[in-house]
């Protein structure tokens, strides 16, 4: 068995990590196990996870109900192809998703990751309009400041200038972009903002199949929380101009913003909804694309009348069984109360960061908070400092943020916010 140093050394030389170089100089830590909100490193140090493993482990690591569901399913049927077969975990999951999702969504495509669920949403929109005899409608309108994933189509929807995929500009399909939302959460919509979007829809409606956005929270693209009235206005404009609305709730879905889905803040149902991340509580990779009867029937009325997507691990029974357990747990556990308490504590303990001359802004919504610094955060310096404090956070750009598991205890969250204040004051 190689020792921890050898493992880390091999990793640096040979294993690609997200948005990383080979060989890599970034600080990297060898994980041995995790339980609840704590990650244990190979050297025995314990870290409180303020990231929920990229916002997925909302119920904590190794939650007993999720482990039980996984073990029972593993013993029975870890995987079977979804072409020609179906199974209880998939059907049970779809029943629960439809019960919880905004009203009017009736059909579900189960896929492997968030990015793929966005690809499926894009295909649904293109196929829908082609079936209506409007195959010129094949472009998408997205918001600048957005992030929708790393696959080819999803990359084309990300901010082309401030986003992470500039290397592919000119190769990925060219989409249209509306400005970054300015109206903040809790504020009314700025009429000028809506007018700009209306102009784009009016001018380009004939070539647009859908508008794509992250409702309320632009996550990876900047941790911005925008006006529910703006979202409602955009949904209204899309309807008026007959452009489908795709809501990417991969980051916001399952309670993160204080509502089960962020669309609920604006009282809207999109034509297509993408979910992922927290769907399995961070246990396994699974995502879903939900749509309305109108879109599904539209696709069916075209040629070839089939939705043209079907990955090998579609509807994986193991992942579906765990997702069923997550949704059952969410229906029993007072996550609303927990998220409200987390929000109140984040506000109380992070607002003082505004007093630091190094800090540009502090934003809190539900179980998410960001301290925006004036300068770029040096990962190589700040992450080891946080680890020394027993806290796991992974800032990006100027953003120091936390999206903790909903089961974090107040004293654990206090350690996360104390470490954030320390960084904020330099
Ligand atoms: C809003 C949003 N959409 C899509 C994705 C891509 O999901 P995945 O990383 O599972 O492919 C992410 C991931 O961070 C996201 O935040």
If you had to describe this structure to a student in words, what would you say it looks like?
It is globular, with a radius of gyration of 21 Å. The protein is α/β, with parallel strands linked by helices and 426 residues long. The chain has helices spanning 4-14, 52-55, 64-76, 88-100, 114-131, 152-157, 191-204, 228-240, 263-266, 293-300, 317-332, 335-350, 379-388, 410-425; strands at residues 31-35, 38-41, 46-49, 107-111, 139-143, 176-178, 208-213, 217-218, 224-225, 244-248, 272-275, 287-291, 359-365, 368-373, 391-392, 399-402. The protein has 2 domains: 4-59 and 334-425, Alpha-Beta Complex (Aspartate Aminotransferase, domain 1); 67-332, Type I PLP-dependent aspartate aminotransferase-like (Major domain) (Aspartate Aminotransferase, domain 2, 3-Layer(aba) Sandwich), CATH 3.40.640. Strand 10, helix 9 and strand 11 (272-275) form a beta-alpha-beta unit. It contains 14 helices and 16 strands. The longest helix is centred in the first third of the chain and has 18 residues, at 114-131. The strands form 4 sheets. A 7-stranded mixed beta sheet has the order 4-12-11-10-7-5-6, sandwiched between helices. It is 38% helix and 16% strand. The protein binds pyridoxal-5'-phosphate. Residues 113-115, 118, 147-149, 214, 219-220, 248, 250-251, 276 line the site of pyridoxal-5'-phosphate.
């Amino acid at each position: 068995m190689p020792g921890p140093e050898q493992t880390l050394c091999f990793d640096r030389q040979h294993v690609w990590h997200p948005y990383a170089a080979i060989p890599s100089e970034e600080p990297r830590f060898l994980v041995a196990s995790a339980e609840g909100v704590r990650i244990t490193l190979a050297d025995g140090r314990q870290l409180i996870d303020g990231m929920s493993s990229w916002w997925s482990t909302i119920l904590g690591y190794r939650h007993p109900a999720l482990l039980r569901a996984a073990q029972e399913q593993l013993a029975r049927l870890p995987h079977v192809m979804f072409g020609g077969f179906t199974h209880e975990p998939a059907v049970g999951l779809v029943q629960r998703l439809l019960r919880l999702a905004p009203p009017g969504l009736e059909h579900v495509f189960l896929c492997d990751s968030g990015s793929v669920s966005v690809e499926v949403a894009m295909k649904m929109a293109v196929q829908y309009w082609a079936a209506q005899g409007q195959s010129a409608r094949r472009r998408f309108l997205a918001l600048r400041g957005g992030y929708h994933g790393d696959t080819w189509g999803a990359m084309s929807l990300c901010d082309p200038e401030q986003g992470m995929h500039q290397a592919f500009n000119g190769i990925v399909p060219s989409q249209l972009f509306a400005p970054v939302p300015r109206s903040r959460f809790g504020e009314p919509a700025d009429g000028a903002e809506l007018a700009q979007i209306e102009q784009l829809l009016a001018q380009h409606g004939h070539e647009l199949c859908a508008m794509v956005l992250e409702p309320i929270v632009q996550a990876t693209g900047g941790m911005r929380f925008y006006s529910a009235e703006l979202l409602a206005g955009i949904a209204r404009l899309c309807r008026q101009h007959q452009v489908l609305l795709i809501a990417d709730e991969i980051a916001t879905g399952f309670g993160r913003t204080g509502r089960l889905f962020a669309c609920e803040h604006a009282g809207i149902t999109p034509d297509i909804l993408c979910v992922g991340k927290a769907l399995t509580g961070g246990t396994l990779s699974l995502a879903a694309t939900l749509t309305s009867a109108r879109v599904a029937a539209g696709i069916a009325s075209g040629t070839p009348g089939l939705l043209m997507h079907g990955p090998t691990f579609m509807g994986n029974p193991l992942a579906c069984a765990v997702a069923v357990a997550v949704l059952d747990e969410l229906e029993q556990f007072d996550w609303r109360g927990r998220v409200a308490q987390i929000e109140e504590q984040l506000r109380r303990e992070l607002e003082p960061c505004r007093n630091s001359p190094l800090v540009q802004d502090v934003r809190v919504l539900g179980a998410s908070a960001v301290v925006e610094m004036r300068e770029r955060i040096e990962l190589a310096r700040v992450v080891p400092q946080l680890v020394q404090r027993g806290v796991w956070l992974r800032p990006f750009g100027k953003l120091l943020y936390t999206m903790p598991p909903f089961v974090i205890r107040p004293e654990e969250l206090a350690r996360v916010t104390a470490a954030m204040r320390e960084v904020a004051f330099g």
